Amino acid sequence: SIDGQRLWSTLMAMAEIGPTANGGNCRLALTPEDAAGRRLLLDWCEAIGCTWRVDQVGNLFIRREGRHSDLAPVATGSHLDTQPKGGRFDGILGVLGGLEVFRCLHDRGIVTERPLELVVWTNEEGSRFAPAMVASGTYAGEFSVDDTLSRRDADGVTLGEALESCGFAGDMPVGEPRLDGFFELHIEQGPVLEEAGESVGVVTGVQGMRWFDVTFSGQSAHAGPTPMRLRHDALAAAARLIDRLQVHALSDTSGATKVTCGCLDITAASRNVIPGEVHLTVDLRHVVEAELDALQSWFECEMAAAGEAFGVAVSQQRIWASPVVEFAPECIAAVEAATQALGVRYRRMMSGAGHDAVYVSRVAPTSMIFIPCRDGISHNEAEYATPEHCALGTQVLCDAMLARANR
Amino acid sequence: SIDGQRLWSTLMAMAEIGPTANGGNCRLALTPEDAAGRRLLLDWCEAIGCTWRVDQVGNLFIRREGRHSDLAPVATGSHLDTQPKGGRFDGILGVLGGLEVFRCLHDRGIVTERPLELVVWTNEEGSRFAPAMVASGTYAGEFSVDDTLSRRDADGVTLGEALESCGFAGDMPVGEPRLDGFFELHIEQGPVLEEAGESVGVVTGVQGMRWFDVTFSGQSAHAGPTPMRLRHDALAAAARLIDRLQVHALSDTSGATKVTCGCLDITAASRNVIPGEVHLTVDLRHVVEAELDALQSWFECEMAAAGEAFGVAVSQQRIWASPVVEFAPECIAAVEAATQALGVRYRRMMSGAGHDAVYVSRVAPTSMIFIPCRDGISHNEAEYATPEHCALGTQVLCDAMLARANR
Ligand SMILES: NC(=O)NCCC(=O)O
Ligand SMILES: NC(=O)NCCC(=O)O
């Protein structure tokens, strides 16, 4: 069985790279901190005889050889990048859990039938470069390599430039190697398991999500002499839309509708200037694709209405749509069997967050393992999972991977 | 009579300093651009024999000597600083109108009984350093010199440091010289005169205004798995407050209630992170002080309600309150007489914007002259006033100043 203490030590060592004031991490994708995290991981993996390659979008494939090196490998992995004020577990656990599986096999001299791969996917968070999971999406054929490399961060730096400058621009063609299966361990990032007193989530799929860039174009004018009725206040229109979206999502008693406005920027903002232009991001999610369609239609109507109410032109661009995903029954079954064998309380559940497993599932049988996180909090410096849960999830990962690699 | 063409040339020459993409100006207070504007003005004034001094908060006093140099001077002036995307007239007209009065008297060799002063007040806009009119307020005793010098911009630079680095840190004690009277020429910055087809506003006072910094403290969390009902979305609370303020102000059929939220900042914003902290600025205005009190109370209740609705802690700090101002009857009368003598359509009116005249009126008899601006637009690059209206307002200024200086 895996070594929970060793796993915890690697988690805490990784957290020393890009620490934030309140105990979290800032390792935005392809920054020097992100690169330092990758190098630390590679040192650990080389020490146990693994080899590695980097593809053209920076995805890192770390290989532990199997008895039949010609067979497609069974893979695990996640991401090492974080939110601007992110936690120490989101993504990182999935990578370091994979490392712990490799170390455990190494200690015992176990050689699996199929090779194993530990994958670090580039820019999963979508915080530096939109959208999220862009590099696993490229691996799975959702985005072209050229498009991905030319995506820009807020400072205008392209993903390709960032890859070059942080030293992780590889040359392996994107899409290689093909995988026999993929298992991703992750914290739940929500409160369900903790509230139910369950230790593992057997993830059967992922809710659908859509990202929008909304622009409100009104007219800047003086806050003092401009009559309320003659204003074209872009922020007033944005606030109306945000409020309506909140009321709508909160009124869904099933709790399945999720709406978030994460970024709002006022052009040339000043206290005594009526905002003339506002940029807003909108994130819509639902577990049922048809409901997500309806949510988007409703959002578009409300957007138009908010603009009309305040004499403001509004336009939106859908920059990302990730449909509802159902994972592969045989991989779900492998995770469920491994969990049941450990005798812990668990549930089958959908993921509320997007994960690299979403895209990988298009090209390889996939499923995920969730463990609880404290107060359901993630994307927050206070994010926390217990050493016991981290170890438990990693044990499930180990057992599911071995079952598949040796089947 | 004054030379309208020469006045227009100086306005256009000043607009070459800190031009913006769409025909406006960016000369934030005490930046190199602001300093360059001041130096251009000083060159023009020295060429007609004026002398000048700078006080400890950077207010610039440019003197045209009178027959009785021991008598308190009659003054005019305004500001040369602009909004981030400001216009070519707001403040500038009041300064260059004063220059044109001086040039006109110089051409004819007219010496007034009292000396005249042209004043450039520091940081009127309040955009770089809050609050607005801070240096005329210091002149009038509303703020202490130390407080004013230690106010910081968004980058943490103090007003005192900015004065030093742009070369306008003077040593004249603040409050000198005492003025016999003050007349400020300004564009209306609203639509009233234009709509009524009137050419001059005889300004009888200024509406009250209050500025607030509001902080919403919720909890950042993941946009995907976090149930709507468990969120503490700081942006949702801010949007609710903004929307309620809009609805309230719009429902005042008198049109006297004015509410503006000019700046909104989300801490560590990211598309898929529920905003944990939001900073919002609120600007409340009314022509009746008691109504402004009521508006503030209402705002405070709505702020608390918005916080409660979304499980977000809210606090506010009132960083500025400028009470309703009534100008001096004799100065209003001087402006009205000068306007009537020119036979143009005019109205007596309150100002919706704050002006340096607000604070100067506490220590010297004061009034203002407004001219129309196109579509009532100000604090916008598109701000415009016709050469004819600029000349007309300057003529009224000249005549009112002469009447007072020679009375
Ligand atoms: N796991 C995670 O935080 N992924 C980011 C993609 C999303 O917004 O769900
Ligand atoms: N005139 C002007 O724009 N003043 C700024 C102060 C205010 O916000 O009214």
Automatic annotation (TrEMBL), chains A, B:
Keywords for this protein: Hydrolase
Superkingdom assignment: Bacteria
Family matches, as Pfam families: M20_dimer, Peptidase_M20
Domain Peptidase M20 dimerisation residues, every copy: 205-301
Record InterPro entries: Amidase_Cbmase, Bact_exopeptidase_dim_dom, Peptidase_M20, Peptidase_M20_dimer
Protein's UniProt keywords contain Hydrolase: yes
Keyword Hydrolase part of the UniProt annotation: yes
Signal peptide limits: none
PANTHER family reported in the protein's UniProt record: ALLANTOATE AMIDOHYDROLASE, ALLANTOATE DEIMINASE-RELATED
Family, similarity comment: Belongs to the peptidase M20 family.
Protein name: M20 family metallo-hydrolase
